[in-house]
UniProtKB/TrEMBL annotation, chains A, B:
Belongs to the H(+)-translocating pyrophosphatase (TC 3.A.10) family. K(+)-stimulated subfamily. Pfam families: H_PPase (PF03030). Homodimer. Residues 654-675 are annotated as: Disordered. The lineage of its organism: Bacteria, Pseudomonadati, Bacteroidota, Chitinophagia, Chitinophagales. The record marks A481 as: Determinant of potassium dependence. It is found in: Cell membrane; Endomembrane system. This is Putative K(+)-stimulated pyrophosphate-energized sodium pump. It is an enzyme of class 7 (translocase).
């Protein structure tokens, strides 16, 4: 094995070392007075308790899934059982990334509050460093894990260079890693999302609306659960999510790169592996530049926090883009070919730039639709003056409208990156976007830390100016959360397409059958069913929040009624009962949506074959992207419409403030938007990637089952060939279902004629 | 020309004669006291004034579109200019169908109120007969128009039998008819939908919520506008909508039937035209049985109105299904072939049955999700107890969930009808579902008539028991409206697929190029853009309602404030100002969504070619069906959740009635649901059909432009052929854009390489 491969895990280790250093620094900061420490301890304990419960359930899932994967590798010569081990590693690292981020976040929150007693600059420093521990942890683990695993499997499958040994099988193992990571991501995002929003909605509905007490008021029994939720949903959930995204974006490119590499005669200075390792190198370099740029995020007292973050982000992006140019031109040969389509190394760099432009545009558009003072949010504000219903109508309309430009940008991005470098271009565009994930995630994770710091300041009754400082950070955090979601959905869309293309290549190895033709009735039927999945998934997620929030409301009402003196601050609220409601609801309700994402591709693939599954994947992707943007943006816009009232808004000559009727209407919208933007909306990007990865993992087995004897055009084959085809299928099935011994079983084959002629 | 063709228009004439008879009968009924007559006159005048304004605007549109169509027929030898005339006829008949239904509805409403003074039986009789005038008018005009036009064009293009003369061009003219009908349908549905919901939402928000006065209270200035809205939206809009649906469903089958007919050697007893005329004959027979079954819709005093309607409906459906069997077996030859796929006449009947089963299941599922007392509506009811926000979350979750089973049913229906009779099967399944449109529409249209009757009873202060009777009819009307929408979206989905298949056949005449391959980057990009259109369309529609409702609220508040004694019933409200607000808003706001539906297919088709347009159409269809069901069902469920409070609902041991806090929350949901279920939701089915029809109409020109020299697989052609291909394209473009004289102009061609290899 060549030494250049070791560069990749080394970059991961560097990131982890910086993470440890930053983590130590945060821990050394002062954690405030006794009351603050106690509240912080409550939050940290609640969060850890939830994570323990969640991970216990997920352990069962991982074991069962690993056994199934191992079995598939055992019965199918085209699949490998080592994939099961990679799956477990991916799952464990993803869980650890979430855990690690949360651990530091529950330390940083109280330290940020304490720092805010001194200065805004210090508070930003602590909260952003806390966020960057998460960012570096996620990317460091991913790069180390992927790089090390790549070295191991290349050795294991005897890949001396790309044309020697079994490169395909080696890379297939990496898809197992990615499957593990994204599965945990989905459960963590949905579970955490249900937890945090059940608590948030419940706390707001009784606290703000009914009892008229402010947010994070210690008299509210749901307030600890709400703050725990910020950590398990917005931090641990997001950490697992971005670990998964980062990994699967790289994997999509790696698999397509493998196809380029293994072509006879392909040579470069890297044993023919340059297209495979390129995305990992870019990701590693992007992470190193992210580390560098964290040191540029600084703000003076009274300065602009958003600008400080933007400066850091742009430094990372621009340095990464420039170095990507030299890396690509040096690593790749001048011309590459994938599935008959030729392109240049310059084209690959062009595709990276397309990815960066798409990501930037998505962030800009998302910000426009969710920022205070712009037309969309203002329209919701003015529609709040005529009641709850018009506020809701306004928000739904904004959310739906907000899909237009991003979809056009994405379509142009697909078109453009393909024009530059074919399918590899689509994949590398996504990888380019995600290269600075470490920086992106640092920016994203600082928001909930600041939010929590504000909560602790409020609950410990610190002076008003402390809360004012954390509020500045929190407001910036709301914007970065929204733009981060726009970015996430764009990269997920491109990644899914890369994975989709990789799936087609593996499941339909014969180039003449590489179509997903929606003019065929059964493929179109697949498109219909696939497009429905994001709807049912969202429905399950938001209904779960609605139900859990109701239970929370009833519990809080009960405590207000039954605990004497609670509203006067004399009776002690039973915080732990509210924590228990959120925990139980989220664990119970995350399972079904997760199962749908995992089971549907397997069922469709094995019953109807790869082309119908391709239709399903296209449906899931297109509708998932739409629903993700619709829900995230509507939620973000409602949130900021509500926030607009804090400074007072002018509607047709009258100024309305907090507590006015229009403000109450805007709270309704914000509450509806909560599960939209923090539960179902951000789950969409994981859903579409996970279903693509599941398909890619089963692709070798599908190829074995559906392409073993004759190509898919069975309809026009003579009847003899058709029979042979069916027999082959039936045998493949029986082999898969019952192991290699049972060979004479027949199952009903899918009728061949159910394919549009042509 | 053969005599058997004359059977079709004759069936249309029979339907129109019955319509006239029923219309005369309704006019003869007593129209009540002076106050009732005056209110009815206000409503009728308001409705007619709106329709006049709307039709004036649409006249400009029809003229411009007709000129463009005529021009296309002039420059492109494959297209016919007569299509422009057919377009005008289709538009005029659609407008007339809406006008006619509304004229009789504004007569029936007051007569139903008067009849309700006598008995429920009489009231049902008057309102249902009023509805059936609409039902028979729509179907009679459609059958007469289509049948007569078919005879004319067959003569004009010298089609002695299917293989002699230009059958293809003749049928192309019918697509122009359908384009006219669906264009008017879209504008009428959107315009009427904005009108009615702006008035309804506005009236409710100030009247019920703020001033605490009941619905239809004469003190509410928006109340006349609200009742006018029922007529222009729910009656005229729905009439134009179903005229369009009925026509385009038939056309989808006719065009595919034409492909079967023109194959050399195809013979039957009908000059080879049986596959073409079959859908018209089934539609005609279905209409005759619908006439018969209207006489079975009767109810005794205190009887079950829903059952009376169901009996009538089932008689029509069963008789039509039985006769369809004999018609199909007798008309069609035993075996047919379409695009290389063979099937039997028995298979065609099987497809009809699939269509009926799909339609029935869709109605049943829709009823489950929107009916009082079932799990979905009850979940919204119980979530109303914790406030506006949880009510909204509950309704959104129900709406999203409600897409699951229908999408699976539709996918199975596509799969099944195709398995029975190929593409022709998919088309005839839709035609079978729509055959009893006359009965369906009679049932649908009686609802708003009863609703209006209730309004008139309230405003004229008739005894409470009169309103009680109209309320029974109105409640049934709400259910039939919901199930009708489920039915409409199912038939639209199947029709769109038939039109989509017809489009592929015409735009890509070479069978080897008949693919819509979403594995190609540019086609997938098309899918993304297409799927976004229903979102932006819905956004425009509901935002328009929100804005207009706000204006209405402000106007009503102003009148309450400025007109002395208005709330004591002494001051006279200025009804006409509210009517003007709705009229202006709806006319102004219907144009942009309508333009999107018409322009996008043309732009995409001419710039990117038929395959990308195919991707767009698939995207629009799948996302339009989802959004249609989501919005209609959420709206229906919210409505009935609110209605549940009228009888009192039990939530965790406490009974809540009208006026309670949970009821107020449920009113919010109902208000949000109003534009969902009556503006954007039901527009979706027209949107998807209209975009397919536009594509089908431009298909011959696209075929001319994109397929003239070499097939689409330019990527793998030698470079010489590629150049030739581009030249041919460029020439075709210049011919199209600048007329036949300018031939040497070059435009940039779409890069061929932007196609996935394979």
């Amino acid at each position: 094995m060549s030494n250049f491969l070791y560069v990749i895990p080394v970059m991961g280790i560097i990131a982890l070392l910086f993470m440890i250093a930053k983590s130590v620094w945060v821990s050394k900061q002062g954690s405030g007075n006794e009351k603050m420490t106690e509240i912080a301890r409550h939050i940290a304990e609640g969060a850890m308790a939830f994570l323990k419960t969640e991970y216990k359930i997920l352990t069962y899932f991982v074991i069962i899934a690993a056994i199934l994967l191992g079995y598939m590798g055992y019965v199918n010569p085209r699949s490998s059982w080592i994939i099961a081990i990679a799956f477990i590693i991916g799952a464990v690292l993803s869980a650890f990334a979430g855990f690690n981020g949360m651990r530091i976040a529950t330390k940083s929150n109280v330290r940020t509050a304490e720092a805010a007693r001194t200065s805004l600059s210090k508070a930003l420093s602590v909260s952003f460093t806390g966020g960057s521990v998460m960012g570096l942890g996620v990317t460091g683990l991913a790069i180390l894990g992927l790089g090390a695993l790549l070295i191991v499997v290349l050795n294991l499958f005897g890949v001396i260079n790309a044309q020697n040994g079994e490169l395909e099988k080696a890379l297939e193992v990496l898809t197992g890693f990615s499957l593990g990571a994204e599965s945990i991501a989905l459960f963590a995002r949905v579970g955490g999302g249900i937890y945090t929003k059940a608590a948030d909605v419940g706390a707001d509905l009784v606290g703000k609306v009914e009892a008229g007490i402010p947010e994070d008021d210690p008299r509210n029994p749901a307030t600890i659960a709400d703050n725990v939720g910020d950590n398990v949903g917005d931090v641990a959930g997001m950490g697992a999510d971005l670990f998964g995204s980062f990994v699967s974006t790289i994997i999509g490119t790696v698999v397509l790169g493998g196809e380029i590499s293994k072509q006879p005669g392909f040579t470069d200075g890297y044993n023919g592996l340059s297209p495979v390792i390129l995305p990992m190198v870019i990701a590693g370099v992007g992470t190193l530049f992210s580390i560098l740029s964290t040191y540029f995020v600084k703000v003076k007292e009274g300065g602009n926090v958003q600008r400080a973050l933007n400066v850091g982000n742009w430094i990372a992006v621009i340095l990464t883009a420039i170095s990507a140019y030299f890396i690509i031109i040096n690593m790749l040969p001048a011309t590459l070919t994938l599935r008959g389509h030729s392109f240049t190394s310059g084209g690959v760099f062009g595709a990276v730039i397309v990815g960066l432009v798409v990501g930037t545009l998505m962030s800009v558009i998302t910000e426009y639709y969710t920022a205070m003072g712009k037309r969309p949010v203002n329209s919701i504000v003015s529609q709040s003056s005529t009641g709850h219903a018009t506020n809701i109508i306004g928000g739904l309309a904004v959310g739906m409208e907000s899909t237009m430009l991003p979809m056009i940008v994405l379509a142009a991005g697909i078109y453009g990156s393909f024009a530059f470098a074919g399918l590899y271009g689509v994949a590398i565009a996504a990888a380019g976007m995600m290269a600075t994930t470490a920086m992106q995630l640092s920016i994203d994770a600082f928001g909930p830390i600041a939010d929590n710091a504000g909560g602790i300041a409020e609950m410990s009754e610190l002076p008003k100016d402390v809360r004012a400082k954390t509020d500045i950070l929190d407001a910036v955090g709301n914007t970065t959360a929204a733009t981060g979601k726009g970015f996430a959905i764009a990269s997920a869309a491109l990644t899914s397409l890369a994975l989709f293309a990789a799936f087609v290549g593996v499941a339909m190895p014969d180039p003449s059958t590489q179509h997903i033709d929606i003019y065929q009735a059964r493929v179109l039927a697949g498109l219909f069913v696939g497009a429905m999945i994001p709807f049912i998934f969202s429905s399950l997620a938001i209904a779960a929040v609605g139900r859990a929030a109701m239970a929370m409301v009833e519990e809080v009402r009960r405590q207000f009624r039954e605990i004497p003196g609670i509203l006067e601050g004399k009776g002690k609220p039973e915080y732990e009962k509210c924590v228990a409601i959120s925990t139980n609801a989220s664990i119970r309700e995350m399972l079904l949506p997760g199962a749908i994402a995992l089971v549907v591709p397997v069922l469709v693939g094995f019953i109807f074959g790869p082309e119908v599954l391709g239709g399903v994947l296209a449906g899931v992707t297109v509708s998932g992207v739409l629903m993700g943007m619709f829900q995230s943006n509507a939620g973000g816009a409602w949130d900021n419409a509500k926030k607009s009232f804090e400074k007072g808004v002018d509607i047709k000559g009258t100024t309305h403030y907090k507590g006015s009727e229009p403000h109450k209407s805007s709270v309704t919208g914000d509450t509806v938007g909560d599960p939209f933007k923090d539960t179902s909306g951000p789950s969409m990007n994981i859903l579409i990637k996970l279903m693509s990865i599941v398909s890619l993992v089963i692709a070798p087995t599908l190829a074995n089952r559906f392409n073993s004897t004759v190509p898919e055009t069975g309809a026009v084959s003579p009847s003899g060939a058709k029979t042979e085809y069916r027999d082959a299928r039936a045998q493949a099935t029986s082999t898969f279902l019952y192991g290699p011994e049972v060979k004479n079983l027949r199952i009903m084959a899918v009728p061949d004629r159910n394919r549009f002629p042509g």
